[in-house]
Design brief:
Largest sheet: 6 strands, mixed
Helix content: 10-25%
Number of helices: 3
Radius of gyration: 15 Å
Shape: globular
Strand order of the largest sheet: 5-6-7-8-10-9
Order of helices and strands: EHEEEEEEHEHEE
Structural class: alpha+beta
Distance between the termini: 32 Å
Amino acid sequence: MKVLVQNLQKRAGLATELSDKYNPDVFLAQEINLNSETYPFPANNVSSMSFGTAIGGKFELSDIKKVTSPWKEFGGFICKKTTIGTANSVQFVSFHGYNGTPFKSKDKLVAHVAAVLAVLSPGPALFAGDFNTWTPEHLSAVECAMKEAGFELAYSWPYPGLDHPLDHVFARGVTVSACEDYAFQVE
């Protein structure tokens, strides 16, 4: 099964562009606005404020869930949301983690991860997206929480301008056999 994971960074039309180019079976998107795509993008989106997480692809999803971060972002208006859905007996999690700018609290990020883990069923799962692991300590704390739930870090990819990744794939009961980075040009 080919899975594409991408933080679209609110770039209009990027989900359909990547879907056409890579033809994924499952697409885990963060910062997507389904209304800004070039054609109707087949996805389940949980955000009521236009941008959010979504899961799309060739398979029909079941057991679709929305999990809201237990912490509001700085300013108190926005809570990051996570989309969960099951396809072919695998739970897929499109995650956009608590950011916490400017303080970047790792404890609040781990609480967000824990809130999502609490609603997952046992069994195979792919938990991926923009974790906002701003420091190695953030990633270590997230890895500990994920390992306690049976997940292993399968892949991380670089973020432009940082010495460490923000985006990760964690797998439980599934094997990640190959990964490839995609970097789009900033306009």
